[in-house]
Amino acid sequence: MRTLYRWGHIHLISWSGLLALGLLTALGASEGRAGDNLLWYRHPA
């Protein structure tokens, strides 16, 4: 049961990451610099 929960958690993170990446790509394509600023805000490193 714990393994199932762990896998579900991993899939949730991966799907959230894909969704966020898609949104960033859309913003970058439409806004240009705004997308870069959002990416910088999300990942300061």
What does this structure look like?
By secondary structure, the protein is mainly α. It has one domain. It is 89% helix and 0% strand. The protein contains two helices and no strands. The longest helix has 30 residues. It is elongated, with a radius of gyration of 14 Å. The model has no long low-confidence stretch (mean pLDDT 72).
Strand share of the residues?
under 5%
Count all strands and give the number.
0
**Overall tally of structural domains:** 1
Largest β sheet strand count, sense and barrel closure? none
Whole-number average pLDDT?
72
State the separation between the terminal residues, measured CA to CA. Answer: 36 Å
Backbone structural class: mainly alpha
Note the run of SSEs as H and E.
HH
Shape category: elongated
Helix content: over 70%
Number of helices: 2
- Low-pLDDT regions: none
Radius of gyration: 14 Å
